[in-house]
Amino acid sequence: MKKIHRFIGDFDISQDSIVITDKELVNQICVVLKLAVNERICISDGKGNEADARIREFKKNEIIIDILTRFCNIKEPKNDVSLFLAILKNENFDLVVQKASEIGIKKIIPMITERTIKQNINRERTQKIVKEAAELSGRAYVPEIHQIMKFDDAIQYAKEISESTYFFDSTGKNINTEKIIGERISLFIGPEGGWGDEERILASDMGFPFISLGDLTFRGETAAIIASYLACKQR
């Protein structure tokens, strides 16, 4: 059975036919994937609404598709999980963004902490990564990439948006004895060098439970991916 490619975009799925004009999407369908007239695709509006469609016609710089059937995407995790992630070096931050988006994270907040080395991200590339990851994994929504926040501001923001916030640190309780629960959850993952003493004190003062992933020491990207899965797997 031939693979049916899935695309998330600004689609009005209530229409019987849709004209795709987004240059990047047109290029992906025509040039990269080389799809043909009458081939079926799946489209999503990124808000939970999806449709099976068929390519009717290619025109210059646009594609016309016909909607076949509409349906609601119910694959999203039931809980709302935000990942507060210290910016990691090299491609490690991008890796976490990709995998966390596939797993079900709703929002990613890049942080600058005491021991953060890299101070910025390529926002355009990051947005592209989360969109492609959401398309590939079948998610109903594209995760939000928040503006970069300093740690002090991030812990206040987590208090505002979540009912449960977990601070991942080697000094915390083992994950085997401490469950991640809640409908609105925030996860804090530190940089390569770990948290600073002042950051631990601030998190403790906020009442955040300290959680350890076990006796082994994981890299920041590994810890972030594991924590994201444990939080999002609840049903």
Write the CATH fold name of the largest domain: Alpha/beta knot
Separation of the first and last Cα atoms: 30 Å
The proportion of residues in beta strands is 25-35%
CATH architecture name of the largest domain: 3-Layer(aba) Sandwich
Helix and strand string, N-terminal first? Answer: EEHEEEEHEHEEHEEHEH
- What fraction, in percent, of the residue positions are helical? 25-40%
Shape: elongated
Q: Class by helix and strand content?
A: alpha/beta
Give the count of helical stretches.
6
Task: Sketch the major β-sheet.
Answer: 7 strands, parallel
**Count of domains:** 2
Mean pLDDT: 93
Description of the structure:
- This protein is an alpha/beta fold and 235 residues long.
- The chain has 6 helices and 12 strands.
- The strands form 2 sheets. Strands 6, 7, 8, 9, 10, 11 and 12 form a 7-stranded parallel beta sheet that branches.
- Helix 2 packs parallel to helix 3 and helix 2 runs parallel beside helix 6.
- It is elongated and about 60 Å long.
- The mean pLDDT is 93.
Q: What characteristics describe this protein?
A:
7-stranded parallel β-sheet, 5-stranded mixed β-sheet, Ribosomal Protein L25, Chain P, 2 domains, 6 helices, elongated, 12 strands, alpha/beta, Alpha/beta knot, 235 residues
